[in-house]
Design brief:
alpha+beta, Immunoglobulin-like, five-stranded antiparallel β-sheet, four-stranded antiparallel β-sheet, 4 helices, elongated
Length: 357
């Protein structure tokens, strides 16, 4: 192209530069595109962190109350977790992480001084709370057999998807809103579910967690900015079993019967004892076993059935034994074999036949 052609093109506008306004429009479009892309990427990352936090909270639930619907190899229910082994909810553990002190969930990850190591404990002194229930033939499976939740490599506690430790501040400090909260029973708090309040003491049992992510996101329905919130609540129905023990007393001679009771008098007493982990073991030196005991007078000629209800037992393995004692003289004449039953949350029924000659 010669100089004459270039001059002709310039006169006719074939070659022209962008104006300042056009450059500004292009830059604005690029900025808007970058902003939309950044927000989309940020939302995806935030959602991933939220889902990671939800998974962690579900792992905490299973660590405390176990997986629901589990079945053992013999077909009986499988009830696992901290509550089944220890007989109570976990306690907050005061720990120093970095330069700060927190209440943590570390009783799920490290054995505290308040629980014995898991094993078979004989129901004799000093392992049992009440000497009246001593029984050297009973062995109770109980104690800490964690860790109930696995920590990431090198992590001192349980963290959320944002890399923040799930913990409360030091209970000696003033409570700070918007930090993670362990929940226990208590008066209603307007910021938390009915019947729950933030825990600020190492003596309160953990019954739930509220985890709030650090990112505020818009809530168009309410016209507000809400934090990502993950909530774990453990209610009474999750940690309470009702046990009903029923049976018959017969006076026919049958050596194959479960009970071979010789009625020396017309009156005797039937005892039912349920052995399990001691939920009062929240301080050192508390015996690991507790026996829940009930009794009922049996008189020959009255209805030959007995029934005992234990309304508030923690779920998990329990050892049950039925004993018949003559009242005069008070002599044990029959005891059922000590049998292990796994209690599930809700109603459980066990039936014994207490027979005699």
């Amino acid at each position: 192209m010669n100089s004459r052609t270039v001059s002709r093109c310039l006169r006719h506008g074939a070659l022209r530069a962008f104006t300042l306004l056009e450059l500004l429009v292009v830059i604005a479009i690029l900025a808007m595109t970058a902003t939309v892309a950044f927000r989309a990427t940020s939302n995806l990352a935030d959602q991933a962190r939220l889902e990671k936090t939800q998974q962690t909270v579900e792992q905490v639930r299973q660590a405390i109350v176990g997986k629901s619907g589990g079945i053992q190899s013999d077909g009986t229910p499988l009830v696992s977790g901290f509550v089944a082994d220890v007989g109570r909810l976990p306690l907050p553990v005061l720990a120093t992480i970095g330069t700060n002190s927190y209440l943590t969930l570390n009783e799920l990850t490290l054995q505290s001084p308040y629980v014995p190591t898991y094993g078979l404990y004989q129901a004799v002194s000093p392992n049992i709370t009440n000497d009246a229930n001593v029984d050297a033939t009973v062995f109770v499976p109980c104690g800490w057999r964690g860790p109930y939740i696995q920590l990431g490599s090198g992590l001192p506690s349980i963290y959320d998807g944002w890399g923040k430790v799930i913990a409360n501040p030091n209970p000696l400090l003033a409570y700070t809103p918007n930090l993670y909260s362990f929940l226990g029973g208590g008066a209603q708090n307007t910021n938390y579910p009915t019947g729950y309040a933030p825990i600020q003491s190492i003596t309160n049992l953990v019954a739930g967690i509220v985890v709030e992510g650090p990112i505020y996101r818009e809530n168009p329905l309410a016209g507000t900015l809400d934090k990502d919130r993950v909530q774990l609540l453990i209610g009474t129905n999750d940690i309470t079993s009702q046990l009903q023990v029923t049976g018959n007393v017969k006076t026919t001679n049958n050596v194959n019967n479960l009970f071979s009771v010789t009625l020396a008098t017309n009156v005797g007493t039937i005892y039912v004892r349920v052995y399990g982990p001691n939920p009062a073991a929240t301080t050192g030196s508390i015996p690991p076993i507790i026996a829940y005991s009930q009794s009922q007078i049996y008189t020959v000629g009255t209805p030959n059935t007995f029934s005992f209800t234990f309304p508030n037992l923690p779920p998990g393995p329990k050892v049950i034994r039925v004993t018949y004692v003559h009242n005069n003289p008070p002599i044990v004449t029959n005891t059922s074999p000590a049998a292990i039953y796994t209690l599930v949350p809700g109603i459980n029924t066990v039936k014994f036949d207490a027979r005699g000659s």
